[in-house]
Protein backbone atom coordinates (compact mmCIF):
# COMPACT_ATOMS: atom_id res chain seq x y z
CA UNK A 1 0.00 0.00 0.00
CA UNK A 2 1.19 3.52 -0.80
CA UNK A 3 2.69 5.02 2.40
CA UNK A 4 1.67 8.54 1.33
CA UNK A 5 -1.99 7.51 0.95
CA UNK A 6 -1.82 5.82 4.35
CA UNK A 7 -0.49 9.06 5.84
CA UNK A 8 -3.27 11.10 4.19
CA UNK A 9 -5.85 8.62 5.48
CA UNK A 10 -4.58 9.01 9.05
CA UNK A 11 -4.68 12.81 8.65
CA UNK A 12 -8.24 12.59 7.36
CA UNK A 13 -9.48 10.58 10.31
CA UNK A 14 -7.95 13.03 12.80
CA UNK A 15 -9.58 16.16 11.33
CA UNK A 16 -12.57 17.70 13.10
CA UNK A 17 -15.52 19.06 11.12
CA UNK A 18 -14.43 22.64 11.76
CA UNK A 19 -10.87 21.85 10.61
CA UNK A 20 -12.26 20.29 7.44
CA UNK A 21 -14.36 23.41 6.85
CA UNK A 22 -11.25 25.56 7.30
CA UNK A 23 -9.27 23.43 4.85
CA UNK A 24 -12.08 23.65 2.30
CA UNK A 25 -12.14 27.43 2.70
CA UNK A 26 -8.36 27.64 2.22
CA UNK A 27 -8.61 25.57 -0.98
CA UNK A 28 -11.19 27.88 -2.59
CA UNK A 29 -8.64 29.45 -4.92
CA UNK A 30 -7.49 26.04 -6.16
CA UNK A 31 -10.70 23.98 -6.24
CA UNK A 32 -14.08 24.97 -7.66
CA UNK A 33 -16.88 25.92 -5.28
CA UNK A 34 -19.23 23.17 -6.50
CA UNK A 35 -16.58 20.48 -5.98
CA UNK A 36 -15.76 21.81 -2.50
CA UNK A 37 -19.43 21.77 -1.47
CA UNK A 38 -19.61 18.02 -2.13
CA UNK A 39 -16.57 17.28 0.09
CA UNK A 40 -17.66 15.55 3.31
CA UNK A 41 -14.34 14.19 4.60
CA UNK A 42 -10.64 14.92 4.64
CA UNK A 43 -10.12 11.89 2.41
CA UNK A 44 -12.38 13.35 -0.27
CA UNK A 45 -10.54 16.68 -0.09
CA UNK A 46 -7.16 14.95 -0.31
CA UNK A 47 -8.40 12.92 -3.31
CA UNK A 48 -9.25 16.13 -5.15
CA UNK A 49 -5.88 17.65 -4.24
CA UNK A 50 -4.16 14.50 -5.52
CA UNK A 51 -6.23 14.54 -8.74
CA UNK A 52 -5.28 18.14 -9.39
CA UNK A 53 -1.67 17.33 -8.50
CA UNK A 54 -1.55 20.00 -5.81
CA UNK A 55 -0.14 17.36 -3.47
CA UNK A 56 1.77 14.16 -4.14
CA UNK A 57 4.30 12.01 -2.40
CA UNK A 58 7.28 14.10 -3.49
CA UNK A 59 5.57 17.50 -3.25
CA UNK A 60 3.98 18.26 0.11
CA UNK A 61 4.55 22.01 0.56
CA UNK A 62 0.93 22.92 -0.28
CA UNK A 63 -0.38 20.36 2.23
CA UNK A 64 2.13 21.53 4.82
CA UNK A 65 0.88 25.11 4.37
CA UNK A 66 -2.74 24.03 4.74
CA UNK A 67 -2.07 22.09 7.93
CA UNK A 68 -0.01 24.94 9.40
CA UNK A 69 -2.84 27.38 8.61
CA UNK A 70 -5.31 25.38 10.70
CA UNK A 71 -2.76 25.12 13.53
CA UNK A 72 -2.27 21.35 13.27
CA UNK A 73 1.45 21.37 14.04
CA UNK A 74 1.22 17.71 15.05
CA UNK A 75 0.24 16.79 11.49
CA UNK A 76 2.86 19.13 10.04
CA UNK A 77 5.56 17.36 12.06
CA UNK A 78 4.25 13.93 10.94
CA UNK A 79 4.42 15.15 7.34
CA UNK A 80 7.97 16.45 7.79
CA UNK A 81 9.00 13.18 9.42
CA UNK A 82 7.48 11.28 6.47
CA UNK A 83 9.53 13.35 4.02
CA UNK A 84 12.73 13.08 6.10
CA UNK A 85 12.40 9.30 6.34
CA UNK A 86 12.65 9.26 2.57
CA UNK A 87 9.34 7.46 2.09
CA UNK A 88 8.23 10.32 -0.12
CA UNK A 89 11.11 9.51 -2.44
CA UNK A 90 10.83 5.73 -2.38
CA UNK A 91 11.27 4.16 -5.81
CA UNK A 92 7.99 3.57 -7.60
CA UNK A 93 9.38 0.62 -9.51
CA UNK A 94 9.07 -1.66 -6.48
CA UNK A 95 5.37 -1.68 -5.57
CA UNK A 96 4.05 -3.92 -2.87
CA UNK A 97 2.93 -7.39 -3.97
CA UNK A 98 -0.76 -6.41 -4.12
CA UNK A 99 -0.25 -2.96 -5.66
CA UNK A 100 1.33 -4.13 -8.91
CA UNK A 101 -1.66 -6.19 -10.11
CA UNK A 102 -4.02 -3.41 -8.97
CA UNK A 103 -1.99 -0.87 -10.94
CA UNK A 104 -2.08 -3.00 -14.09
CA UNK A 105 -5.82 -3.56 -13.72
CA UNK A 106 -6.53 0.14 -13.11
CA UNK A 107 -4.50 1.12 -16.18
CA UNK A 108 -6.23 -1.35 -18.48
CA UNK A 109 -9.81 -2.08 -17.43
CA UNK A 110 -11.74 1.20 -17.79
CA UNK A 111 -15.53 1.48 -17.88
CA UNK A 112 -16.16 -2.26 -17.48
CA UNK A 113 -14.67 -2.32 -13.98
CA UNK A 114 -18.00 -3.20 -12.33
CA UNK A 115 -18.23 -6.44 -14.33
CA UNK A 116 -14.84 -7.50 -12.93
CA UNK A 117 -15.84 -6.56 -9.39
CA UNK A 118 -19.08 -8.57 -9.69
CA UNK A 119 -17.01 -11.60 -10.78
CA UNK A 120 -14.97 -11.12 -7.61
CA UNK A 121 -18.18 -11.22 -5.54
CA UNK A 122 -18.09 -7.53 -4.64
CA UNK A 123 -21.56 -6.21 -3.76
CA UNK A 124 -23.50 -3.58 -5.73
CA UNK A 125 -23.97 -1.53 -2.55
CA UNK A 126 -20.21 -1.30 -1.99
CA UNK A 127 -19.65 -0.37 -5.64
CA UNK A 128 -22.30 2.35 -5.35
CA UNK A 129 -20.54 3.74 -2.25
CA UNK A 130 -17.23 3.84 -4.09
CA UNK A 131 -18.83 5.60 -7.08
CA UNK A 132 -20.48 8.14 -4.75
CA UNK A 133 -17.13 8.84 -3.06
CA UNK A 134 -15.33 9.30 -6.41
CA UNK A 135 -18.03 10.44 -8.85
CA UNK A 136 -15.79 11.79 -11.59
CA UNK A 137 -12.75 9.55 -11.42
CA UNK A 138 -13.21 6.15 -13.07
CA UNK A 139 -9.70 4.95 -12.28
CA UNK A 140 -10.08 5.85 -8.60
CA UNK A 141 -13.44 4.04 -8.48
CA UNK A 142 -11.74 0.86 -9.65
CA UNK A 143 -8.72 1.34 -7.37
CA UNK A 144 -10.92 1.91 -4.30
CA UNK A 145 -13.10 -1.09 -5.20
CA UNK A 146 -10.04 -3.32 -5.47
CA UNK A 147 -8.74 -2.07 -2.10
CA UNK A 148 -12.17 -2.67 -0.52
CA UNK A 149 -12.27 -6.15 -2.05
CA UNK A 150 -8.80 -6.83 -0.65
CA UNK A 151 -9.88 -5.67 2.83
CA UNK A 152 -13.08 -7.72 2.61
CA UNK A 153 -11.23 -10.90 1.57
CA UNK A 154 -8.25 -10.36 3.84
CA UNK A 155 -5.73 -13.20 3.46
CA UNK A 156 -8.02 -14.86 0.92
CA UNK A 157 -7.49 -12.02 -1.58
CA UNK A 158 -5.35 -13.75 -4.20
CA UNK A 159 -3.93 -12.51 -7.48
CA UNK A 160 -5.17 -15.76 -9.03
CA UNK A 161 -8.74 -14.69 -8.17
CA UNK A 162 -8.15 -11.39 -9.98
CA UNK A 163 -6.81 -13.21 -13.03
CA UNK A 164 -9.72 -15.67 -13.00
CA UNK A 165 -12.23 -12.79 -12.78
CA UNK A 166 -10.53 -10.93 -15.65
CA UNK A 167 -10.57 -14.04 -17.83
CA UNK A 168 -14.21 -14.64 -16.89
CA UNK A 169 -14.96 -11.17 -18.29
CA UNK A 170 -13.02 -11.90 -21.50
CA UNK A 171 -10.27 -9.47 -20.49
CA UNK A 172 -7.52 -11.91 -21.35
CA UNK A 173 -4.98 -9.26 -22.33
CA UNK A 174 -5.27 -7.59 -18.93
CA UNK A 175 -5.11 -11.00 -17.22
CA UNK A 176 -1.91 -11.79 -19.16
CA UNK A 177 -0.37 -8.48 -18.07
CA UNK A 178 -1.27 -9.16 -14.43
CA UNK A 179 0.36 -12.62 -14.68
CA UNK A 180 3.57 -11.02 -15.93
UniProtKB/TrEMBL annotation:
Record's signal peptide: none
Where this protein primarily resides, as one coarse class? cytoplasm
DED domain segment(s): 3-81
InterPro entries reported for this sequence: DEATH-like_dom_sf (IPR011029), Death_dom (IPR000488), DED_dom (IPR001875), FADD (IPR016729)
In terms of superkingdom, the source organism counts as Eukaryota
Looking at the record, the residues that make up the Death domain are: 98-180
- Name any one GO molecular function: death receptor binding
- Asked if the Swiss-Prot or TrEMBL record annotates the protein with the keyword Cell cycle, the reply is no
Function description: Apoptotic adapter molecule that recruits caspases CASP8 or CASP10 to the activated FAS/CD95 or TNFRSF1A/TNFR-1 receptors. The resulting aggregate called the death-inducing signaling complex (DISC) performs CASP8 proteolytic activation. Active CASP8 initiates the subsequent cascade of caspases mediating apoptosis. Involved in interferon-mediated antiviral immune response, playing a role in the positive regulation of interferon signaling.
Q: What is this protein called?
A: FAS-associated death domain protein
Organism equals: Aptenodytes patagonicus (King penguin)
Q: Which gene encodes it?
A: Fadd
Amino acid sequence: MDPFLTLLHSFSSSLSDSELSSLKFLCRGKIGKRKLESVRSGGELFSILLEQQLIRSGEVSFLEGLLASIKREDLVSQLKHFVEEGEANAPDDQPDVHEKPFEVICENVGRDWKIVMRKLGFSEVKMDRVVAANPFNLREQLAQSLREWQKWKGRDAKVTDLIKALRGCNMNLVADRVEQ
